[in-house]
UniProtKB/TrEMBL annotation:
It comes from the Bacteria. This is 2,3-bisphosphoglycerate-dependent phosphoglycerate mutase. It comes from Nitratireductor basaltis. Catalyzes the interconversion of 2-phosphoglycerate and 3-phosphoglycerate. Keywords: Gluconeogenesis, Glycolysis, Isomerase. The active site is at H10, E88. PANTHER family: PHOSPHOGLYCERATE MUTASE. It is an enzyme of class 5 (isomerase). Homodimer. Pfam families: His_Phos_1.
């Protein structure tokens, strides 16, 4: 029997609130973000989930989200592996800029292409395809084997690093995945078959 993969995007960050491109910059969570993270933990607790291990990025907003979830689950001491392979997409020269200011500088159409195309990176940054190129090997080598051994694995990460995983799990095309929104603080549960395909999936809301 294969295990369960739990994906959670970090709670709202200060830069999400300010409409700034964040990427590898490291702002903290807003009060709403802290509460979203705690609520994710409560939802998982109510459904009886008990992770065997947790993975997160090297960015504090994902780590704090992971910490809140584990505290709500009564698992503060759970082994947690942090790796930059799970970091948010690197927005390069856009990082720290207000999205409206970026549109004024480069034009609405160009910024839309950088944000919502699959394989066109912003200046000095990564496309979603580039992000997947580091997320997928890490998932295959470090996370998936644990799930296939029957473990429940929590991954607290970012909109685009999780989008890269969802693209593979849900068998989505490049065009389909850029349209998919990953909400902050909302757990997505994937139960996998022995061949690593998805047996079932659900979004926990409440």
């Amino acid at each position: 029997m294969s295990g369960t993969l739990i994906l959670v995007r970090h709670g709202q960050s200060e830069w999400n609130l300010k409409n700034l491109f964040t990427g590898w910059r490291d702002p903290g969570l807003t009060e709403k973000g802290h509460e979203e993270a705690r609520n994710a933990g409560r939802l998982l607790r109510e459904k009886g989930f008990k992770p065997d291990i947790a993975f997160t990025s090297v960015l504090s907003r994902a780590q704090v989200t992971c910490d809140h979830i584990l505290k709500e689950l009564g698992q503060e001491g759970l082994e947690t592996i942090r790796d930059e392979a799970l970091n948010e997409r690197d927005y390069g020269d856009l990082a720290g800029l207000n999205k409206d200011d970026a549109r004024e500088k480069w034009g609405e159409e160009q910024v839309h292409i950088w944000r919502r195309s699959y394989d066109t990176p912003p200046p000095g940054g990564e496309s979603l395809k580039d992000t997947g190129a580091r997320v997928w090997p890490y998932y295959i080598n470090e996370i998936l084997p644990r799930v296939l051994r029957g473990q429940t694995v929590l991954v607290a990460a970012h909109g685009n690093s999780l989008r890269s995983l969802v693209m593979v799990l849900d068998n989505l095309s490049g065009e389909e995945i850029v349209k998919k929104e990953i909400a902050t603080g909302v757990p997505a549960i994937y139960r996998l078959n022995a061949d690593a395909t998805v047996a079932s999936s659900e979004i926990l809301k409440g």
